[in-house]
Amino acid sequence: MTTFDERRTLEEQLSVALERHLFKNDGNPFYICPTGIEFVLEHSEGREFLSRLRGHTDATDPTGTSFIYFPDRIVIDTVGRRAFWLELKVMKRSPRVSTKMILKRSHPRYDNIHPEKWVKLQPFLIPEYWGVIERRALDNYRRLCRSIGDRSLMLIVYADFHPHRLIAIWEQDMVKLYEQDRELFPDSNRENVQSTRGSGTPWANVSLGNFLPLESFLVKNTANKEYWKRNQPGEKMRMILGELGG
User: Fold this and answer.
1) d(CA 191, CA 201)
2) Measuring CA to CA, which residue among 230, 219, 244, 246 is closest to residue 11?
3) Is residue 187 a contact partner of residue 135, using CB atoms and an 8 Å limit?
4) Strands, DSSP E only, in 93-234?
5) Cα angle for residues 101, 64, 136 (degrees, 5° grid)
């Protein structure tokens, strides 16, 4: 099981690789602007703002405010003529995840999933499609996107256990399968911070079964077909995965 710091390092490598090969800040076809907490902490005004923000919350750790989970980037697609948030996540294989555990935990009630949709999810209730995300992050993404509208946040995930490893989805299409009890595991948990060396926030599980390979997702949802014919997204994926260790 990887530590929080190891996942953070890999997430930074993912960010660099994506911006080198795909999301170049040159308008062809994307402009990007950092918006996440790491960017804010690089500037004195941002650190001062965060300090004031923390002073007005009852949270017992810094991740108790939704601002901490603001998406990583804003992307402007100059060809597709639209803008969206971009959030990056790294998910690593856990030896504790098994099909038996997944079948025991997952339930349609967590996302009010319609019976017909639940049936379609059944084949994906296996470790290769069992994603994990911090619950407060998922809550915050949903609040933001409900206020802005559909297709306002693109989530890109590198999951070393998924058949395609590099995958993507719009926030509106994510399906929550399980979450830690909100009374037993409140958003801010000092014990978890000390024991896990992570953020200490409770987690939720989402299905990766309806994520698309990143190449297919970008061709379908960004720029246009002519642009992607010229720019060979498949080759870009191979370069990115190579930089992430295959």
Assistant:
1) 10
2) 244
3) yes
4) 130-134, 153-159, 166-170, 176-179, 203-207, 212-213
5) 40
Residue 153 phi/psi, 5° resolution?
-140, 120
Phi, psi of 155 (to 5 degrees): -105, 120
Is the confidence at residue 197, as pLDDT, over 60? no
pLDDT confidence of residue 1: 41
Amino acid 60: pLDDT:
53
CA distance 39 to 181: 32
Percent pLDDT > 70 in the chain is 89
Q: Average pLDDT of 19-27? A: 94
- Its pTM stands at 0.89
Pairing of strands 203-207, 130-134: antiparallel
Return the closest-CA partner of residue 156 out of 221, 99, 62: 221
* Cα dihedral 87, 227, 245, 206 sign: positive
Question: What is the CB neighbour count within 10 angstroms for residue 183?
Answer: 6
**Angle separating helix axes 233-243 and 214-221, nearest 10 degrees:** 140
Q: Which two tokens stand for residue 118?
A: 């639940």
